[in-house]
């Protein structure tokens, strides 16, 4: 009479569930140690792709905020320099009115002219030397295109830009030459200086508006960055309480599986010994 011993199904089943529990425990341990539930694309391929896009957006928004702050610094430098030129023009206007008075003789007007020439030279020096990060700001040559227009990348995507144009503030562009030693020169000087002062005021108003726009952009971008970071964190970061519970459960099930497998193998061994 022949006999056979069937495959130990109980041991195989116990081994299967033990392996499943071990894999679950290893995954939980990986999540807990890294703090991320998207450490591998195998866990959640689509979630990882979305989280990475959000991460890139957060980084881009952070850089755009830095860009805007740099541009604000540049604008403040340009505005401060224009204030100096404006002060010089105010003084030149006063001197021109003084020279236009009938009580001034030729020598007095010549002395006034020397002061005016010095103020014009000072203004020209300001316009030609004012720079930010080595880039000239007030001579009309700044910006990427070399035409005085500065572009700030204010967003995380291409095309998110803001531009500001800084006018040429050199004396040759503002007033040319001023001569108060002649009646015709004095008559023309007032209108010339007034026009220069208006141009400076317009330029400073443009700079102020651009600075306010950049500050508003920083506030809005900061909100967007926080929201994007929160969305990424929700997708990527581990819920430590939940994952710790999962790890404890998987660890317990793994131990139970190992015990069950040992018992099944022991039972099969005992049956086999009956035929020894």
Short description:
71% of the residues lie in helices and 5% in strands. It is mostly helical. Helix 1 packs antiparallel against helix 6 (240-273).
Structure explained in plain terms:
The protein has 276 residues and is mainly alpha-helical. The chain has a domain of 161 residues: Up-down Bundle (f41 fragment of flagellin, N-terminal domain). Helix content is 71%, strand content 5%. It has 6 helices and 4 strands, in the order αααββββααα. The strands form 2 sheets. A two-stranded antiparallel ribbon has the order 1-2. Strand 1 and strand 2 form a beta hairpin. The two termini are 16 Å apart. The N terminus is likely disordered.
CATH level-4 homologous superfamily of the domain at 67-227: f41 fragment of flagellin, N-terminal domain
Topology-level CATH name of the domain at 67-227: f41 fragment of flagellin, N-terminal domain
Ends apart, CA distance between termini: 16 Å
Series of secondary-structure elements, N-terminal to C-terminal: HHHEEEEHHH
Largest sheet: 2 strands, antiparallel
Total count of strands: 4
Number of helices: 6
Radius of gyration: 39 Å
**Helix/strand/pairing class, anyone?**
mainly alpha
What is the name of the CATH class of the domain at 67-227? Mainly Alpha
Strand content: 5-15%
Helix content: over 70%
Give the CA-based shape. Answer: rod-shaped
Low-confidence stretches: 1-6
Give the CATH architecture of the domain at 67-227.
Up-down Bundle
Query: What is the strand arrangement across the widest sheet?
Result: 1-2
């Amino acid at each position: 009479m022949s006999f056979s011993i069937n495959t130990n199904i109980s041991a195989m089943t116990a081994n299967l569930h033990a392996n499943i529990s071990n894999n679950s425990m290893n995954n939980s341990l990986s999540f807990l140690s890294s703090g991320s539930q998207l450490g591998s694309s195998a866990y959640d391929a689509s979630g990882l792709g979305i989280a990475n896009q959000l991460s890139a957006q957060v980084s881009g928004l952070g850089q755009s905020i830095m860009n805007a702050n740099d541009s604000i610094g540049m604008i403040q430098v340009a505005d401060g320099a224009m204030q100096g030129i404006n002060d010089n023009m105010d003084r030149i206007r006063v001197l021109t009115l003084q020279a236009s008075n009938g009580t001034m003789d030729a020598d007095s007007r010549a002395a006034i002219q020397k002061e005016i020439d010095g103020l014009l030279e000072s203004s020209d020096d300001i316009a030609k030397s004012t720079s930010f990060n080595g880039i000239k700001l007030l001579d009309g040559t700044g910006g990427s295109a070399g035409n005085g227009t500065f572009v700030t990348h204010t967003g995380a995507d291409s095309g998110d830009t803001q531009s500001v144009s800084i006018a040429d503030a050199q004396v040759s562009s503002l007033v040319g030459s001023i001569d108060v030693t002649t009646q015709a020169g004095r008559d023309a000087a007032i209108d010339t200086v007034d026009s220069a002062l208006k141009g400076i005021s317009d330029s400073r108003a443009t700079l102020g508006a651009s600075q306010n726009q950049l500050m508003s952009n920083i506030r809005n971008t900061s909100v967007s960055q926080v929201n994007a970071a929160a969305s990424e964190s929700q997708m990527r970061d581990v819920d430590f309480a939940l994952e710790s519970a999962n790890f404890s459960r998987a660890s317990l099930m793994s131990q139970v599986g190992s015990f069950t497998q040992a018992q099944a193998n022991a039972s099969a061994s005992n049956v086999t010994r009956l035929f020894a």
